[in-house]
Every structure is written in structure tokens, then in C-alpha cells.
Amino acid sequence: MRLLLIHSDFIEYEAQKKTAMAEEDIIQKDSLDEAIAAFCAVESVDEEDLMDVVIQAADEILKTAEKVGSARVMIYPYAHLSNDLASPKQAVMALRALEEKLSGSIEVKRAPFGWYKSFNLSCKGHPLSELSRTLVPGGGEDTPAKKEVTREWFVL
Amino acid sequence: MRLLLIHSDFIEYEAQKKTAMAEEDIIQKDSLDEAIAAFCAVESVDEEDLMDVVIQAADEILKTAEKVGSARVMIYPYAHLSNDLASPKQAVMALRALEEKLSGSIEVKRAPFGWYKSFNLSCKGHPLSELSRTLVPGGGEDTPAKKEVTREWFVL
Ligand SMILES: [Mg+2]
Predict the structure, then answer these.
(1) ipTM of the prediction greater than 0.95, yes or no
(2) In angstroms, rounded to a whole number, what is the distance separating the alpha carbons of residues A95 and A78?
(3) Is A155 part of a structural domain of the chain?
(4) What pLDDT was estimated at residue B139?
(5) Phi/psi zone of residue A97: left (φ > 0), alpha (ψ -120 to 50 degrees), beta?
(6) Does residue B150 form part of some domain?
(7) Is B17 an interface residue toward A (CB < 8 Å)?
């Protein structure tokens, strides 16, 4: 999963138009102030162990929320963060699981998957206000400096 | 180069704090209405032929601008789009070259490289308002479905 976390004054969206893979029963329009906008791309490799990646993502979001002193997150599906996406079905499963996982600890909203959406985002711009991660099943982060999946920092 | 183009009602930024790789002599704060926000990550592979990738990026931006009926672009350095970045020096060279290349055809502004910045972005949300590309030297797009660099769509 590619994750881009932006500590924001506000994030708001409005679903405008369905794509072929649009979720049903959505919240058409919503917003959060003083929140983390969590842009997520679920990747094909995540399908090997979707729940593992979801737990890592939740952990990353909660750590960041604590660091920046926010207690709100807007999960925002963002396919443009990856060239190698999971199937839409798996992606929606992961995003819903992430929402549920976080909802015990923090206020969570989730923008709908598979819709063209307008959005308005105000990034705070302090040194911790933008962070990105590539999470892979097995608990490691996949970066060029760290091709081998390392497990030490995340033990189930 | 990873490129994320967002057709926006407005994009505004304000440089807040230097990083170790901050550009000097910057425009501290600026904005554009009815513009394409062009988030760019210059990648290490781009160093093989920086100008080739710049020309491809300019071409992509101009095509998109024409499609959505915009005549303004804000070039916005965005390292979070890639896990494998070019050196800061090469990245700044590429971004400045992109600015110069575009400036004959369209109104261009460029947010400074290497600064923590606050920003405010309003994505329009119509079907063409968000587009991403991975450009590599040699003229092709590097996607999983297209591992071999193809040249047909961009001939110098
Ligand atoms: Mg509008």
C-alpha cells in the first residue's frame, strides 16, 4: 500500500460522477477539520496479505496522528500513488477494514472508492505535515535502500 | 519523472521552512486560479537524460492543459510521488528546465524546491481533472503493463 499522509487544516470532498468500479451507498460529500488526509493506493502485492498491510497502515496513521496532535483521519482512495494496483474489490475491502481498524482509536471518515471527486485540501506545511510510506505484506517497507522486506519494526 | 496533474480551481502555497536542500532566491508565496497543479518527482533514472524527460513532461502538461481548457500551470515539486529520487541538484535543474520549456506556451509558476510548504488545493473533480504519468528517458511510460520502454508515442 502506498500511503500519503497530509496534516491538514481541512479536507473536504464531493463525489461527482461514478466510474465503472464505483462503491454504492456512499457519503456523497463530507469534510474534516484539523485532520490527517490519508491518501491510499492498495497495490497488487497487498493481495498476498491484505489484513497485514491494513494493520501496518493503521499503525502508521495512528503514530502520525499522535506525533502531529490530530485525532481525525479522512481515508481517501488515491490510485495515482501507484502503477500496480490491487483489484477494485480487494482495494475496497482493504479501505473498509482500515476504516474499521482505526475507528476504535480516532475519528474516521472515508471518501468513496471509484468516484470522480472534487476535493479541497489545506496542508499545514510544518515539517511533519507530509509523510509517505510504501507498505508491503510481511511488515516491511519497500524502498530502494531496503529492497529486502525487513520485519523487525513490525511484529505481530 | 512521476507526474500528477490536477485541474484545480486554485492552487496556492507558502514556503514555511528550509530543508537542507532548499533553493535560494525563491518566491515565498504564490497562487494560481483555474490552473493545472503539476506535482513532480524527478527520479534517479531521469538523470540518464534529464532533458528528454523534461520535454516529455512539458508535452504531457500541454496536452492536458489543452484538453481541460486551462492555460496556467503551477509546477510543484513533490518527492512523495517516488521512492527513488534524483539528486536534489538534478531535480532542481529539471524543474527549472520544465518551467522554461513551458513558459513559451502557457502561464507558468513554480513552487520552490526543498522547502516545507503549506498549500491549499481545490481539485475540480471532473473525469479529466486528475492524471498521473511515470515518464522515463527514452520516451516511454514505465508501467507494469508496459515494462519495455516504448517509443512510438513520443518521437523527437
Ligand atoms: Mg468549482
Answers:
(1) no
(2) 11
(3) no
(4) 73
(5) alpha
(6) no
(7) yes
